[in-house]
Structure formats: structure tokens, C-alpha cells
Amino acid sequence: RRTDPVTGERYHTTFRPAPTPEIQARLRQNPKDQEENIEKRLEIYYGNVKALEDFYQDAFYVNADQDPYVVFEFIESCIIKPLPCKK
Q1: Region for residue 43 given its phi and psi (left: phi exceeds 0; alpha: psi -120 to 50; beta: otherwise)
Q2: How many CA atoms lie within 13 A of 66 on its CB side?
Q3: 12/29 Cα distance (integer angstroms)
Q4: Eight-class DSSP state of 15
Q5: Smallest Cα–Cα separation from 59: which of 84, 79, 86?
Q6: Which of 25, 38, 54, 85 has the least CB density, counted as fewest CB within 10 Å?
Q7: Which residues contact 17 (CB under 8 A, 6 or more apart)?
Q8: Has the keyword Kinase been applied to this entry (predicted)?
Q9: Are 72 and 80 in contact (CB under 8 A)?
Q10: What element of type H or E holds 11?
Q11: Which among 56, 65, 58 has a CA at the least distance from the CA of 81?
């Protein structure tokens, strides 16, 4: 991700590149997007994910990369099952 300091417009080097070499030359990268900062954020993310997975052991995983109706049906089938009652 890059930002044009003149216009404030945002660009992405792969998905939305700057339209001209002039704009490309003046783009600035957000310090949050530097490699060492991203590595720190990913480390924190994976640490949190692990803690959440341990806490919610009965959670189910959803493959959301499919037809929305199929995703809905799967989620519905998982939550309609009666929850166990503590006595």
C-alpha cells in the first residue's frame, strides 16, 4: 500500500498501481507496512489465534470460499444442534 502525499490517493503495488511514473515516484509507504512491523503483527495475531482456539475448543470451522447458501446451511446445521445443558 502506498499513499500519494499530493492528492492523498491510495494505491497498491499489485492490485491498484499508480497510473503514471510521476505519481509512482512520489508515493510513500506507511511505516506500519514495513516488513519488520508486519512480522510483529503476524506474531501477535497467531499468538491470539492460538489462545482463542484453546479457549473455544468446541468451535467449528467454516470454509467461506464457496456458495453463500452452502455456507449458510453449514452454519445453520452447526447451531441448530441442541447445546448441552449443565446440571
Answers
A1: alpha
A2: 10
A3: 10
A4: T
A5: 79
A6: 85
A7: 11, 24
A8: yes
A9: no
A10: strand 10-11
A11: 58
Q: For the ranges 8-12, 23-27, 71-75, 82-86, which has the lowest average pLDDT?
A: 82-86
Least Cα distance to 20 among 36, 9, 32, 30 occurs for: 9
- Paired strand residues for 3: 10, 28
Please write the tens of the pLDDT for every residue from 48-79. 998 998 888 878 889 999 999 999 988 888 88
Q: Are 2 and 11 in contact (CB under 8 A)?
A: yes
More confident residue, 31 or 81: 31
- According to DSSP, the residues that pair with 29 across neighbouring strands are 2
Note whether 36 and 63 are within 8 A (CB): no
